[in-house]
Structure formats: structure tokens, C-alpha cells
Design brief:
heterodimer, A: alpha/beta, six-stranded mixed sheet, four-stranded antiparallel sheet, B: alpha/beta, 12 helices, globular
Chain lengths: 407, 272
């Protein structure tokens, strides 16, 4: 807590009816999209309370995604670090290998109920693209995934997975050719094919209702973690750690603990080559509020309001914005936002692989690196939950290249 | 009366349609913009729509995206755009200039400073693609205080309720988006446009402009039958792209295109 007198129990439930988290969030889109977003909001408001929808979603999460995901006590690693106990929320064990599917399963069920026949998505690392292609295949829906041309190269394996699943992957050549440009292109597709198309956004960003809706679909992570932690340790955790690109795995973990005093939250951004180099993707640590991709949030931009180039070794964190709820949590002081650079993330990648036999995604390696740092500062009777948001198989090419190995 | 209202009033008296070309400020070089604006006015343009380049133009098709990229290679900023308008005003104090762009550069400058500087430069209207009236509560009054018209898009997907709220917030003219898509798309349906314009006219007296997907005299005439203004962007910007290194050729090609559209629009109204 930033203020020892204040209790988080009274934290307001946001967003408001217009999608605002304090001054953040909102609905900053071209007029053509307004009707579609309204239709989506009404459908979501209806089905999130519909017992049939909820039970179908729960069934899918259990039988198709493989939930609940375990909460694993990384005893050997904790012991070596010599501080607090680290528990890993194993989202890497989900079907398709990351937390992304929690959300795509939910949005796909919504798309089906809304009578949409075509699914589009943007993707950075390719995990959301794969998770979208997966649910589209299962429901027999046409699927088009937009992916920055740079990411298409560095995540070639995921591109192939999407194609195997029957999706069309369109490399985006505009702008910086990464996640933000893929999002621009997906929005352009949506505006053109608005009648039959459902846009599955993969993170807690974008125009209202996406930040709240994606958060809600991801809160299964935090709800499970809360119960599992109490069952295993007899109490709530002392700290939560999750990586933040757009911030969906972090919101999913944080949200069910928001009003629990004594649970510290750490969102870990990508410091890339280092925060002082400018080559990073850490808008909460270094950015300013602005408007991009339909919402107001912290952004990396130049003095003229042009969005900056970002860099991270992990494609999934390589984004100049962040979900608006994180912007709000930063301002009110409920969550702390920190940054881990490429080298620190790599060190955590190797540590977890070699000490625990778990190959983490490079995105999650940022959370692991900060979790390890934090653990060292705390006594052994403290418990930290680190969200292991995805598995690292997709990254072995990047890791090998960094090690000077060619396949 | 501001320049936009005066322009539409004069055109109405003359029974003529407004011709509104769009170019991105600083495309293909900052030196080209002001001379090109004057040349377009001479070729029959009544209002100039000047795009403020942005790194992430979500509502634009590939042609205008590339225009923004060319302008940003010269680091054209909002302040540079104001300087261009100031320079344009030295020779032309009657042709309205409407800025079209995205919200973030305006946020970065600050709404109050933006409104003040825009008014000082001689800007008449501002169309911010990603600022619907619901999110414009702070910005719109500051613009109006400075005598600048906030201009809004109405789309084929806009509901009756939204049309009412948009027309209530809008000043200057209404920009009707002729198709579901991005700028420069090719799926224009003039019949649907006409129907929607008739609906919009029931709730507002503001002049109605139509843009997105109008590329030549033929498409201009097709929407011009019902509209008060025809807005042409990508087709013009394409002329810049085609001869990016040759300002004289760019100007000649754009002038030829606008003259042809001007002639066709005037023929349309004179035949009525």
C-alpha cells in the first residue's frame, strides 16, 4: 500500500458505463465502429449474466483449455534464491500454451451467439493468434490474423501453427511492422467487414468494452490462484508478479486480489536494452498519457505525440501502449510497475529451465526475473505468485539465435 | 460568420457544390504543401482539408497511410502544420482550412494550446477521427471558444440516436463517410449514400459533405446529386505518391484532376 492508512477495500469497481477507468480507457474510435462496439457491449452485458453462457464457458475452460491450471511451488528455485517462496501460476500448461486462450474461448462463444461468421485478430508473439485460430477452427469460423511483418519472421513457428489451424495470416508491412501496426490493420479490416466480423482483441486494451471484457475472461487466473494459494499456504499471497505488454495476464491475476490489503502487485514491463537507451517497451515506467487504439492510457511517444518505436526481446511485450486499467492502477498506487531488460529476462529463462525444468515464454521470463529479484528482498515465510503466462517453446529460435546457434 | 459558413452560403447562392480536396501536410515534402493548397484553390477547391500526419492512422487506407509516413520522414509536427496554414493565409484569407487527423498529437500539445494556436494560424475546422463527441467534452468547447468548428463523421452504421447526438455537437458541416471501410476504399454505393443523406437532412441544417471512396468526376457527380460538398482524399494523394520527387508534375496532375471534377459538379448543378 502506498499509504498505510488507506485500505484498498473501498477501491471503486471500474470501468464506468462509458468505459472509463478514471481518466483512462473510453471509446476513441472512428464513427463507423461505434455501432459495432455498442452491439458488442450490449451482447457482452447480456451474456455475462446468462447462466447458459457461463456454464458453457466454464465447461470449455475445464475440458478444452484444461483448467484449473496448477499453482506450483518452485521450491528448488526459491531455495536457491534464499528469500520468499515463489509459486508459479501455470498458465503455460493451458491448451495452446499460454493464458491467451482463456479470453479467445470466451470471445468466440460471444461471437457465435452474436451470429458472426468471421473472426479477426491481431497478434504479436503469435500466442493470441494461435489461440484465436484454435477456437475459430473448433467453431468452424473463418479466421484472419494480422501480424507485424517483423513478428512473422521472429515467430515463424506460430505463423505455421495458425496456418495449420486454417487461419489466414496477413503480414502487416506498415509503420514499425509489429503488434501496434497489426492492431491498426485489424481495426481497418473490422471497419470494412463490420456486418459479419467479430474482432477478438487479445489484450486488455482497445476501445470499451474490450479492456473490461478481456479482463473478465482472464480473471479465472486470479480466482483460481486465490483459492489455490489459500489451500496451499493457508493465507493470501504477499505479492503478485506478472509481465505487462498490453497487460491481460496481469489484469487476470491482479483483479480478484484488488481489494485485498496486504497483497502487493507488480506489473513488469520490458526494459529492452535498458530504460535509459530508449530501446524498450515500458510505457508505464517512462511514458505519458495519450490516446491510441481506442483508449486513453500511458504511451511511448515523442514530443509531437507520434507513437515511438519499441523494442523487447519478447514480441508479446513489444507494444507502446498498455491496458487503461493498468494506467489507472498506477496512478492510484494500487499496483507497482517495474521493468526488466532483455538480459535479465534471459537469465530468468535459463534459471527456470535449468532449476525447475520449465521452459518459460520470454514474456513470462520478465515476470520471473522480477519475482526472483523481489524474493531475494523478502524473508522465507513470504509467498509470491508469479504468473507463468506462457511456455517458451515458441521462443527457442530467438534464444538459440542469441546463443549463436543455428538449426 | 466564419469562413466555412460563408463559403457554403456563397456556394448555395451560386447553386454550386463545394469541392473539398484532402492532402496530408508535408507530403511529399513540407515545401510542397502551401503552393499545392493555392493551386488547388485555383483549380476550383472551396475548402482545403489538411491532414495532420500521425504514426498510427487507424481509419486510413494504404494510400493515406503512406502519405503520413512520407510526411513523418520530414518530422512534420502539428506546429509545422500551423506554420503552413499561417503561410497559406498570407495570400488567401477566404478559403477555409480544416485539419483532419487523430487525437494523440492534439493531446500531446494540450487542448487549450491547440485551440489557441490553430485559431491564430487561421484554421477554421478540426475533424479528429478518433474523438467522438462523447469523448470531446473538454476539447470541443475550447475549439468553439476560438471560433473553430468541430467537425464530425457520420457513418453508414450510425444509428438514428447517434446521428442526433453527432449533429448536435457538430459545427461547420457534416462529413458523411460514404462506405464501410477505410479512406480510399472502392466499394462506394451512391444510392445508399443518397438515402442516408436524406435522413440526416431531417435532423440538421448543416451542409452535408461526402467522402471516402470518391475518386473521379463520375463518383463525385454520383454523390454530388444529394450532397452539398464532395471530399476527395486518396485519389489526390495517389497523385503525390506517383510522382513524389516531382512537385511540378504533382501539382499539374492534381490541378487537372480537380478541374475535371469541378467542371462535372458545375455541369450537374447547372443542368438542374
Amino acid at each position: 500500500m502506498s499509504d498505510s492508512v488507506k485500505s484498498w477495500a473501498e477501491l471503486p469497481d471500474l470501468p464506468d458505463s462509458k468505459g472509463h477507468f478514471g481518466v483512462y480507457g473510453g471509446l476513441f474510435v472512428a464513427e463507423t465502429l461505434m455501432a459495432a462496439l455498442d452491439e458488442l457491449r450490449l451482447a457482452y452485458e447480456k451474456y455475462q449474466q446468462d447462466p447458459e453462457f457461463i456454464s458453457e464457458l466454464d465447461k470449455d475452460l475445464q475440458d478444452y483449455v484444461g483448467r484449473p491450471s496448477p499453482l506450483y511451488h518452485a521450491e528448488r528455485w526459491s531455495e536457491q534464491l534464499g528469500g520468499a517462496q515463489i509459486y508459479l501460476k501455470r498458465e503455460d500448461l493451458n491448451h495452446t500454451g499460454a493464458h491467451k486462450i482463456n479470453n479467445t474461448v470466451g470471445q468466440a462463444l460471444l461471437a457465435k451467439r452474436m451470429g458472426k461468421t468471421r473472426i479477426i485478430a491481431e497478434t504479436g508473439a503469435g500466442q493470441h493468434g494461435v489461440a484465436t485460430a484454435t477456437v475459430a477452427a473448433r467453431l468452424g469460423l473463418e479466421c484472419v490474423v494480422y501480424m507485424g511483418a517483423v513478428d512473422v519472421v521472429r515467430q515463424a513457428q506460430n505463423v505455421y501453427r495458425m496456418k495449420l489451424l486454417g487461419a489466414t495470416v496477413i503480414p502487416v508491412e506498415s509503420g514499425t511492422k509489429t503488434l501496434k501496426d497489426a492492431l491498426n490493420e485489424a481495426m481497418r479490416d473490422w471497419v470494412t467487414n463490420i456486418d459479419d466480423t467479430f474482432y477478438i482483441i487479445g489484450t486488455v486494451a482497445g476501445p470499451h468494452p474490450y479492456p473490461a471484457m478481456v479482463r473478465d475472461f482472464q480473471t479465472v487466473i486470479g480466482r483460481e490462484a486465490r483459492e489455490q494459494c489459500i489451500a496451499k499456504t493457508g493465507r493470501l499471497p504477499d505479492a503478485l508478479v506478472a509481465c505487462v505488454g498490453g497487460g491481460s495476464n496481469a489484469m487476470g491475476l491482479f483483479y480478484p486480489f484488488m481489494r485485498d490489503d496486504g497483497v502487493e502487485m507488480y506489473g513488469v514491463e520490458a526494459a529492452g536494452d535498458g530504460l535509459d537507451t530508449g530501446n524498450h517497451a515500458a510505457p508505464l515506467c517512462t511514458g505519458v498519457p495519450g490516446v491510441l487504439h481506442g483508449n486513453r492510457t500511458y504511451l511511448m511517444e515523442d514530443e509531437n505525440g507520434q507513437i515511438s518505436h519499441t523494442h523487447s526481446i519478447s514480441a508479446g511485450l513489444d507494444y507502446p501502449g498498455v491496458g487503461p486499467e493498468h494506467a489507472w492502477l498506477k496512478d492510484v498506487g494500487r499496483a507497482n510497475y517495474v521493468a526488466i531488460d532483455d538480459d535479465e529476462a534471459m537469465a530468468a529463462f535459463y534459471a527456470l529451465t535449468q532449476i525447475e525444468g520449465i521452459l518459460p515464454a520470454l514474456e513470462s521470463s520478465h515476470a520471473l526475473a522480477y519475482g526472483a529479484k523481489l524474493a531475494k528482498t523478502l524473508p522465507k515465510d513470504k509467498n509470491i505468485i508469479v504468473n507463468l503466462s506462457g511456455r517458451g517453446d515458441k521462443d527457442i529460435h530467438t534464444v538459440a539465435t542469441r546463443d549463436g546457434i543455428e538449426f | 460568420m466564419n469562413r466555412i459558413a460563408a463559403t457554403f452560403e456563397r456556394l448555395k447562392e451560386q447553386n454550386r457544390k463545394a469541392l473539398i480536396p484532402y492532402i496530408t501536410a508535408g507530403d511529399s515534402s513540407p515545401e510542397l504543401t502551401v503552393p499545392l493548397m493555392h493551386a488547388m484553390v485555383e483549380a476550383g477547391a472551396n475548402i482545403i482539408e489538411l491532414g495532420v500526419p500521425f504514426s498510427d492512422p487507424m481509419a486510413d487506407g494504404p494510400v493515406i497511410q503512406k502519405a503520413a509516413e512520407r510526411a513523418l520522414m520530414h518530422n512534420v509536427s502539428l506546429r509545422d502544420v500551423f506554420e503552413m496554414v499561417t503561410s497559406f493565409r498570407k495570400q488567401d484569407n477566404s478559403t477555409p482550412v480544416v485539419l483532419m487527423g487523430y487525437l494523440n498529437p492534439i493531446e500531446a500539445m494540450g487542448y487549450a494550446e491547440f485551440a489557441r494556436a490553430a485559431a491564430q494560424a487561421g484554421v477554421d475546422g478540426v475533424l479528429t477521427v478518433d474523438m467522438p463527441p462523447e469523448e470531446g467534452g473538454e476539447c470541443m468547447p475550447l475549439l468553439r471558444e476560438q471560433g473553430i468548428d468541430p467537425i464530425f463523421l457520420i457513418a453508414p452504421t450510425s444509428t438514428e440516436a447517434r446521428i442526433a447526438s453527432l449533429t448536435a455537437s457538430a459545427r461547420g458541416f457534416i462529413y458523411y463517410v460514404a462506405l464501410k471501410g477505410v479512406t480510399g476504399a472502392g466499394n462506394l454505393d451512391a444510392g445508399n449514400v443518397a438515402k442516408k443523406l436524406i435522413d440526416i437532412r431531417k435532423v440538421t441544417d448543416l451542409p452535408l459533405g461526402v467522402g471516402f471512396g470518391i475518386k473521379d468526376a463520375e463518383t463525385a457527380v454520383a454523390v454530388g446529386k444529394e450532397a452539398d460538398a464532395v471530399i476527395i482524399g486518396s485519389a489526390i494523394v495517389k497523385k503525390i505518391e506517383e510522382s513524389a520527387g516531382n512537385p511540378a508534375l504533382i501539382t499539374a496532375n492534381i490541378v487537372a484532376m480537380l478541374s475535371s471534377i469541378r467542371g462535372a459538379l458545375d455541369a450537374l448543378t447547372q443542368n438542374n
